[in-house]
Specification:
alpha/beta; globular; 14 helices; 13 strands; 453 residues; single chain; 14% strand; 8-stranded parallel β-barrel; 38% helix; TIM Barrel
């Protein structure tokens, strides 16, 4: 597959918006985070803007500080199935944890979503290190980082084998011959591995896309190796264009090592947008959003990323000198926060602010013209296929992006005028995969797993 010449845009749909204060904005409603019709309306707006997909993150526990902001609450595949019934084109990507799910359930759920949406489903596989989530599943201490990724690699192997367990023409439906399914074309996978034992086959026919899109969102060594083996797209963190170029070179080298094309994966950094009709207006909007973020929330969020006691962080001093990359936890966001702080010589307060109260992704503040120019520069560099757009406030920021930034991207000749296909693979310009005639070997590939990797 050749490198895409068309920009791709996904909406990273974080309920009220990316800023922790988004729910307090005048156009937001506090109850939206648990209102599925709100999600439908937002997805319809993103489809009006010809976005490739909407993406729903997920976390299988109550947010650690629910007093401060809304959190991902509704089960994402149910929400996306509701959206599918009210839209025609936009892709539907949801997160599922390989640590706290079984591959058969997830393969069935996402195959069903792909059928329900006419081929628009995508699965973001995450490994979930949080202790709070583990306790909801009877696990006092989450598995070590490399063990979670070993499990995730086997999980992905099994999920894809289950999607491939039906041949495309297994459903016969011959009323005259009283023959419903040709069982010779439905194949148990008989997987026996380190973490899973799955007989199969799936009880759902092969999905319309062959396999739903597989997404990965980790920047650790193990995460990037996992992506190189399994992913169609990567959701990344990059605070500068040189960072994005370095990441792309690294990931593409790993793809080649796996026997894949260096452009087999689409890379989507997160991009937080704060839009105003003038730069002054955009700066004023950012300032107002920042003033609505409780500093306690930002401090707790940063401490969680760095895995330190919040008391060790002094608001008007730089980060402590002795920070170490956690062996477990959010390594991608740790690296991003540390790079941002060191590059800008930021105090803790400034770092929290630079992250919008805890987003972890790059923030761009400006006019539609400035934002469109920035997006074009990054896209034409070859470092990215597009962006995970993360509006500051969904209720007004997404509308501003669709109405004012998207037309400029079209004028620049880098973004679609309309959808040319019906599936998420069509939007991403990815071919429908041929069915594997046999499941992959059940031996889990050895990932890089040094302490602190």
């Amino acid at each position: 597959m050749s490198q895409s010449k068309q920009l791709h845009l996904n909406l990273n749909f974080l309920n009220a918006g990316t800023f922790a204060s988004a729910w307090r904005w005048p156009t937001s409603q506090a109850t939206d985070y648990a209102d599925v019709q709100y999600y439908v309306r937002v997805a319809q707006l993103a489809e009006k803007g010809t976005f490739d997909s909407v993406f729903l993150a997920d976390f299988p526990a109550l947010s650690d500080r629910p007093e401060y902001r809304p959190f991902q609450s509704l089960e994402p595949t149910i929400t996306l199935a509701t959206i599918a019934a009210a839209t025609r084109h936009i892709g539907l990507i949801a997160t599922a944890s390989s640590t706290y799910n079984e591959p058969y359930n997830i393969a069935r759920r996402f195959a069903s979503l792909d059928h329900a949406s006419g081929g628009r489903a995508g699965l973001n596989i995450v490994t979930t290190a949080d202790k709070q989530a583990g306790r909801n599943f009877g696990i006092a201490q989450p598995p070590a980082h490399h063990v979670r990724y070993e499990r995730a690699a086997e999980f992905a192997d099994v999920v894809k084998a289950l999607w491939d367990s039906w041949e495309d023409d297994a459903l016969v439906g011959d009323k005259e011959a009283a023959r419903f399914i040709d069982t010779r074309k439905v194949h148990p996978i008989r997987h026996q591995g380190t973490h899973f034992s799955v007989e199969g086959a799936l009880n759902v026919p092969r999905p319309p896309q062959g396999r739903p899109i597989v997404v990965q969102a980790g920047g650790s060594e193990d995460g990037m190796d996992f992506a190189a083996r399994h992913a169609d797209a990567v959701f990344s963190v990059a605070h500068s264009l040189p960072d994005a170029l370095d990441y792309a070179r690294d990931l593409r080298g790993r793809l080649v090592a796996q026997g894949r094309s260096p452009h087999d994966i689409l890379i989507f950094p997160g991009l937080v947008t704060v839009i105003g009709s003038t730069e002054e207006e955009a700066r004023r909007r950012e300032e107002q959003l920042w003033e609505l973020v409780p500093i306690e929330y930002g401090l707790q969020r940063l401490a969680g990323i760095l895995q330190v006691d919040p008391k060790s962080l002094k608001l008007d001093e730089p980060l402590p000198d002795n920070l170490k990359l956690p062996a477990d936890g959010m390594q991608t966001f740790f690296k991003g926060a540390l790079t941002l702080a060191e590059r800008g010589r930021l105090t803790v307060r400034q770092l929290i602010r630079a992250q919008g109260g805890g987003t972890g992704h790059r923030i761009i503040v400006g006019t539609p013209e400035q934002i469109a120019a920035d997006i074009e520069e990054w896209f034409r560099s070859g470092a990215v296929a597009g962006f995970n757009v993360m509006p500051d406030v969904i209720s007004s920021g997404l509308e501003a992006f669709v109405d004012h930034v998207v037309p400029l991207l079209r004028q620049r000749g880098i973004f679609r005028q309309d959808y040319s296909g019906t599936t998420l693979r069509d939007h991403f310009n990815l071919a429908r995969p041929a069915r594997l005639a046999a499941p992959p070997a059940s031996i889990v590939p050895k990932l890089r797993s040094a302490a602190g990797a």
